[in-house]
Amino acid sequence: MNKGKTALLLLLTASFLYSAPTHAETASPAQTPPAPISIYMDGKQLQPAAPPVNQSGTVLVPMRELFEHEGAKLAWNNDSKTVTAIKGSTTLTYRIGEHTASLNGKAVTVDVPGQILNGYSMVPLRYVSEALGSTVNWDPASKTVRIMSTVLDETSIRWGVNLRSQPDAEKGASLEMLSAGAKVHVIREVNALWLEVQTQDNRTGYISAKPKYTDYTSPSLAELQGDALIETGKKYLGAPYVFGASPDQTDTFDCSSFVKRVFQDTLSVDLPRVSYDQAKTGTEVNLSNLRKGDLLFFSARDLDIGHVAIYAGNNQILHTYSKVLGVHIEPLDGQWKKRFVTARRVF
């Protein structure tokens, strides 16, 4: 063999040895990690604190975020690992790990139980969302869950309000002004003062939850706002009582100037100045159905209605009438039950 052929043979042999796959390379390729599950609610992608997991065809997600996005108020018992969620007239109670839950007092089956993974309480997404009134669709090709509330655009804007990027009037940039008559869908109640909403053109943001701006109401929001009213009122505990005190200052109060100030500062509800006129606002409620923030009116100073107080829950009232006590909380009993005239609900 001449030198040229020998050189070519050596070159081809080296090329083959360099490119030939090893045993490891000829084995089955390593499996790629499964694609993550995406979740959208009313067109907005959710970003759960822990990644959703698929258990036997059931998607489990972090409990708290799902309930909050569904607009439910959440209570968690860490000892029993039991969650209670309330949304409107629906109450759902579930214990992590169980195959049954309680929906409005009736036992229902949970095919795949919730579980605790990496410190997160994970619950079955479809079951929870449908129990709270939403529709759930699963796209296996894209591994996408789409949740749609049963009713969109059910809340009307009463008064022009800013749609903001954050639930904060100072930090949240104004995205647009929603005019009176516009419709929005409430995604969730952020707190007593803010709602997360979706507009008719599918923009999402935050608007004031104060009753002057929308006709949105719910038992959970009313409870949050009642708590906020009482907390505002408690800031003035001990403030001196002065009959005829101006509602434009907070050094002194009489009964109606105190109530007027608390409602204005907390919920922007502008009540009349005197208790007799305040008793004409809102709707009448029975003593047996009181909730925090309701107004109670009593006879006083030989007047049919001469005193007003705020119901503080647990049969307590927040008010002022005494130069000795100033603003204070006391039981709704004794003389107050005897002098009670009417109760009104203004939010």
UniProtKB/TrEMBL annotation:
Family per record: Belongs to the peptidase C40 family.
The entry's keywords: Hydrolase, Protease, Signal, Thiol protease
Signal peptide positions on this chain: 1-24
Keyword Heme annotated: no
Listed PROSITE patterns: NLPC_P60
This protein's record includes keyword ATP-binding: no
Name of protein: Stalk domain-containing protein
Residue ranges of domain NlpC/P60 in the record: 223-347
Gene3D superfamilies (alphabetical): Copper amine oxidase-like, N-terminal domain, endopeptidase domain like (from Nostoc punctiforme), SH3 Domains
Pfam families: Cu_amine_oxidN1, NLPC_P60, SH3_3
